[in-house]
Amino acid sequence: MTRRKQPTVSVALAAYNGERFIRQQVIGILDQDRPIDQLVVADDGSTDSTLDIVRDLVRSRGRGTELVVLEPGTVPLGPTENFVRAVRRSTSEVVILADQDDMWSERRVAAALAHFEQDPAAWIVAHDAQLIDARGENLAISTFDSMGVTSEEIRLLSSANAMVALSRRNVLAGMSFALDRRLLDTAFPIPPGWMHDYWLACWAGARGRLRVVADPSVLFYRQHDQNVYGAGSRRLRIRARRLLTTESDATVMRDRFEALVQRLEACDDVDEGIVDLVRGKRDFERIRAGMPAAPAARFVGVARQAAAGKYAQYGSNGTWNMIRDVIHPPKTEGTGAPDE
């Protein structure tokens, strides 16, 4: 039997003033059991030694890895656009995303490729990740556990009905994504207002081409400074604080899903039932965005949507979303914070 040729692999790494952690991440990327072919680093205006560290490491231990550095422009792009340019400059058949402050096990690339080989229909393979602190110490909880992701949610995300879960919330971090070239050939441009990970997950999920792996052993998601997940007993306090301080996300979600509906309606490879589901999500967010400013009238509107089962079907956190919508009126422009 002829062994199938292994695909080429690029890593798309977004960087900005990352000297604190990027050395450890790049060493892990370069020391893979299955070496990568290309490392694309998009720098968004670093003023520290980030790029010097990357260049030195590739020179000393790159094992033939091609390094492509995308220099910053005159205006900072932000994380989404910076990642997008790194991904679009990548030339391999599989592109794996990486944040500058996380860590990889030596099996990260091989694990992703094994899933693509087992399931040729997949466009994205996304892993759970182990949470670590700023020193790299294990926090004894994974990303999925910290977000309360259920086994049913994971099953849905990997099925033809992935949009049932994705229309409620996104639990997948871009740093966990391995992307097949077929996704990259069709998913761009990303509409304004979307984070790259949520958009790519929806683009693949709408076609049943998203695969989610609950194994957190190949990725380590670093929590530091403001980048901290609530875990254990802290989660309730964090939710309560966000409930009182975070404005409605309805206009953001309305605009996002309006754009997704328009793009999916122009495709001939998405089941009409999935498009209808996404239309339902858009319509729910339209109603939320149009809620009255007066608290009593808004309470009535929220109660009607709850009674119709819409918060259960489309809300990221069900009852929490209902309470927040009662407390906070919708913004007139799409600037509210998105659901997590």
UniProtKB/TrEMBL annotation:
Protein name, UniProt field: Glycosyltransferase
Annotated Glycosyltransferase 2-like domain residues: 10-125
Keyword vocabulary terms for this entry: Glycosyltransferase, Transferase
Pfam family for this entry, one: Glycos_transf_2
Domain of life: Bacteria
Native source organism of the sequence: Nocardioides vastitatis
UniProt cross-references to Gene3D superfamilies, sorted A to Z: Spore Coat Polysaccharide Biosynthesis Protein SpsA, Chain A
InterPro entries, alphabetized: Glyco_trans_2-like, Glycosyltransf_2, Nucleotide-diphossugar_trans
Enzyme Commission code: 2.4.-.-
Top-level enzyme category: transferase
Gene Ontology molecular function terms on file: glycosyltransferase activity
